[in-house]
């Protein structure tokens, strides 16, 4: 792809115009976490509160503790996730995290 191309035109929305969405895998098996190498990823945490977040790269994270309600910008969609969930945020997604219980997580950004 040419670096000058418009990234907006490269994304194709799913039928119904859903746009970017958050993927949540509830309580994945330990074998899946080992396959991904989750425990070698950096750790991050935050207190309760509301935080605007924009993902400039695709992020995968595994929550060790906490609970979040993510309100996707430009949508009425709210995605809840918490301790034990493996969550993927697509590149380009903007949302507000409503952290209802302090978060501790492993995370990884895709390099592409």
UniProtKB/TrEMBL annotation:
Gene3D superfamilies: Jelly Rolls. Residues 1-25 are annotated as: Disordered. SUPFAM superfamilies: RmlC-like cupins. InterPro entries: RmlC-like_jellyroll, RmlC_Cupin_sf, UGlyAH_Cupin_dom. Residues 35-107 form the (S)-ureidoglycine aminohydrolase cupin domain. This is (S)-ureidoglycine aminohydrolase cupin domain-containing protein. It comes from Digitaria exilis.
